[in-house]
Amino acid sequence: MNFLSAPPLAQPELSEAKIVAQSAHDCLIDEVMTWPKPGLVSHVDSGSHQDMSVSTFIKSASAIEPFFESLYGAGHRNAALSELRRIGLAAERAMLEATNGVNTHRGAIWGLGLLCAAAGWRARYDATMSCGEVVRTVWGDAIRATPVVTTSNGGRVCTQYGVGGARLEAANGFPVVHKIGLATLRSSRRANPTHTEAARVQCCMALIAAVDDTNLLHRGGVEGLRHAQESARAFLSDGGVNVPGWKIRAAAMHADFVARNLSPGGAADGLAMSLFVEKIYALNERF
Fold first, then answer.
1. pLDDT value of residue 266
2. Domain residues for 209?
3. Shortest CA distance to 269 belongs to which of 107, 118, 53, 153?
4. Position 125 in a domain
5. Which of 101, 229, 234, 239 shows the smallest number of beta carbons within 10 Å?
6. Confidence band (pLDDT; 50, 70, 90) for 6?
7. Would residue 54 count as lying in a domain?
8. Residue 137 DSSP class
9. In a domain, 149, yes or no
């Protein structure tokens, strides 16, 4: 089926778009309010980032929330990737204005933005498809055809180290988000239903262990990436958040990452996206 040749559709119910945009915003807040996340900004400290704090992230999340609503609407009317990109670039400008030029959420705008568009599409066409399947099926080819932006840190790292980065993760339907992030959240919640922050930490660690994070490659090269992955794998193999003293071990990892100036920003984005798809699938019956 050529989805992009389908006739234009009416705009969705306003409440639907707002609910999804609010969910995306809330997931960004949940991400930054999670601690300890190795090297990352939280409500406790700024991690490996001297130019930003939790307040920077809160301002940024509020500034970009309206664009998630627009992306939901664009997905609902079956817009092309070029339309989604236009909205995303406007969101980036709003982010930079709100943060005085600090890049807090560029990766999240890309990933969460596509997932918001996918939520709009699946609400109109086929709610049995996952958001990742929608992105892969509807916009995957166009994403692959988009050239790597070598002027960005992520683009340079992808070229230098031969990794796929956020672009190929999106084109493939966010498999890491669904198979690792979402799966870890669900299993952690089943094991400890009342420990919501612990589930988020476990999810973040699982993503650090699995992802060739371009942020880690940018800051620490291959050695930094491998150190981060091995540290996260050791945390998980020792029981993760399911054993006493897990927070002390996670805090020690955090201190180590800060000392090495490592920041797994891709895992932070993946955590927010995993939380988002979890919310969207829970809301499925409402849409």
1. 94
2. 9-286
3. 107
4. yes
5. 101
6. very low
7. yes
8. I
9. yes
